[in-house]
Amino acid sequence: MQQAEDFRAECRALHALVAAAPVSRFAEPTQFKGWGIHDVLQHLHFWNRMAFLQLEDEAELVRLLKAMAASGGSMRAFESAKLAGLEGTKLVDTWERQFEETADRFAAADPKARLKWAGPDMSARSSITARLMETWAHGQEVYDHLGTVRRNEDRIGNIVMLGVNTFGWTYATRRETPPGEMPYLLLTAPSGAVWTHGREQAGERIEGLAEEFCQVVTQVRNIADTSLKVTGPVAADWMSKAQCFAGPPAAPPAPGTRFTAHAPAS
């Protein structure tokens, strides 16, 4: 599956960033819920491992999901308890080994295989695409915190597709009815290619950089902090609350609260 290789490439890009960063900065609060870099890496590692278990040991996956549901605490607290003591360079190395193993396992899998998960069963392709999206989205707070502007690649096309496919989900999770048909998307990929999605229609369009569309649907930027051109009431409503990830409705960050910090002076 190409998605498995795209996941691997995104993980490797983030690994190169954190491996070069001082471990002393891992506990500093980022712009995302005050998580430190160690929180981000623990979270990614835990769920990469869970995805690996989808294909490797379904019984263990189900056991862990039941234990988490019965714990009564937050998901993050459960992850932290399971990974107690895994921090610093040891965490970076363990996360790296796991994402490589997970990528290998999914690269050899049937893309259409149905796999157990916390919610409804999903295809192997959907599972590894979700891991790519999570890595990209949570990676953003790390790039922002370390003052590094990410250089995206066309593999973010997977996240664009998630954004497109979850137009209805954005409203369903809020128990709302979409106010109209999905707006027409005219997006410029990192390579300069032009990606279009939806039916071209008068008055409803979102146009601009694909990476900024991904930032909005993953809620790592407020639409006001992008240069996307949003035309029409349906487009404006969608971009005000777009959500391509599972779970209860989540509000985008307030304008001006997510940005690339100034890199510290050397």
Structural features, described:
- The strands form 2 sheets. Strands 4-3-5-6 form a 4-stranded mixed sheet. It has a two-stranded antiparallel ribbon with strand order 1-2.
- A hairpin with a 6-residue loop joins strand 1 and strand 2.
- Helices cover 50% and strands 8% of the residues.
- With 266 residues, it is an alpha+beta fold.
- The model has no long low-confidence stretch (mean pLDDT 95).
- Helix 1 runs antiparallel to helix 5 and helix 2 crosses helix 3.
- The chain is globular, with a radius of gyration of 18 Å.
Mean pLDDT: 95
Strand line-up in the sheet with most strands: 4-3-5-6
Gyration radius over CA: 18 Å
Biggest pleated sheet: 4 strands, mixed
What is the number of helices? 10
The portion of residues assigned to helices is 40-55%
What are the secondary-structure elements, in order, as H or E? HHHHHEEHHHEEEHEH
Overall form = globular
Distance between the termini: 41 Å
Number of strands: 6
Strand fraction equals 5-15%
Quickly give the structural class.
alpha+beta
Low-pLDDT residue intervals, each spanning 5 or more residues? none
